[in-house]
Amino acid sequence: MVIPTLTLGRGGVGSDGHSLTEWWLNKNGADAIKLALLVTVAEAGLDKNRKISNK
Hints:
Elements: E1 12-15, E2 23-26, H1 29-44
């Protein structure tokens, strides 16, 4: 089974990922939420310029 995935790397800064010294600072976290919503709406085909068909 193949499940497509997407990673959005926004909304903070950090270093030393997956280690004991890992740190992360929420910087522009609201931008990450907006980006995730925008991508979801675009992928679902719910933007204004796209017509939904029942075919």
